[in-house]
Amino acid sequence: MKLSGVIKCLSLTGSIMFCSGSLLASDQWAMHQANSAHTGYIPATINVSDITFRWKKKLSSAPLSPLTAANGLIFVADPGYFGIQHLYALRKNGTLAWGKAYANIFSVNPPSYADGIVYVQTGNSSPGTFLRAFSAVNGNVVFQSPHAAQWEHYLSPTIYNGTVYINGGSYGGMYSFAGITGHQNWFYSGLPQVDGWTPAVDDKWAYSSIEGILYVVDRLTGKPVFKIDSGNGANPVPMLGGANDVFVLDGGMITKFNTITRKIAWQKIYNFGEDFTGQPALANGVIYAGTNLGRLVAISQTTGNILWSWKNVANDSVQNNIVITKSHAFLGTANKVFCIDLKTHQSVWSYAASGYLALAESGLYVGSQDGTLTAFKLGVADLFAPSHSNFGPIVALTTKSIAVGIKNVGDKSLSVNDIVSDSSIFSVETAPTSFILAPGEAKLINVSFTPSATGVFKGNLKIHSDDQNEPELIVKLQGRGI
Fold first, then answer.
1. How far is residue 330 CA from its own chain's centroid?
2. Residue 34 φ then ψ, to 5°
3. What digits encode the pLDDT tens for the residues 299-349?
């Protein structure tokens, strides 16, 4: 597995750490489909022989929410309908670290995680609906921010660059809140009132797909930018492709929106009588989507052409979400969880469980409709580091330093042998560059950028270790001299 993170940390209260910049938390399943783009991608290489059953725990008689896994903990809710509902924080061994119980409210919704804080919306009309924030370590309250609502269920909040974006409003809309203080930044009221969505967010915009229309608003101001009608009518969660493209699975069809032309680029159905289902994933130019007849389909991000497919012989529908790694796909059907090799296109592992999937913290977690949480151990030494680090613009011939976080999130010790830059523009400041990371241990590496002139500069930070899956880990570096 590979972790990422460009982090500058400020200790606030107790165990809460706020880290500015971008924490591309590849060792975390931090929100809906892992990240603010909702791609479902964890840049890890899986050794299938290491996947072993860890534990199974009955948490509730109600279905479990989508999962969040980060900071050595697994976070999950058991949404209900009034009655007593819970937010749980469990350790990797399955024991309860802390929990919250709410009685006589309409909904407790799926959690998200960022910078040591767990975020969850609890719904009970207006007044009585809140965006709540807790310390991930001990459950202490960070803030409780009220917002307008009716009787609604939500998906997990989306966090981007220290800001929380949520579905809300008495008659529909989207909110932006400060992630540390809970201060409301803005509210956009121009969305229909529907349940069960969360926005996708990038450095410019926040996206929602409601009743067949893709809505795009400025993430800093909440002002509408544009909207595109897909001709469908459900309320799926958008997935961002990172190439001026947005993907939506709606009504059995996948639609690609081009955010430059602000038009539909292509729409794809699989086959007559076999619809795309669930929440797709995206990695390395390929979209992965399930079907109602138990098929995993790989689709070109650019053209929409089908590249290959795998078929579950039981024909039971692919449900909920798909998880993609560098080497394998994980998906759940009505009866089993499967692991599909991306090279051979064959199933190489399965287990009789069903539900929402999360892959993080050296484990695979399944939250089921019967209230059971099942954990599997991946059991390898896993070094995580950022896939890229961007220094941004600085004045030529001056120097800017950032900290690149690397972490061993596996269950075996790792030896980092050397860390070097292949460009004189970027320098490794931290010494020594050889050390041992125990399981769970992290280290910050300071890297400096000194542009010799104006223009864009690129380089690679090469981290050499005894990680059997990836002995040379490359972090792409980029900065601009002005």
1. 15
2. 85, -35
3. 999 999 999 999 998 889 999 999 999 899 999 999 999 999 999 999 999
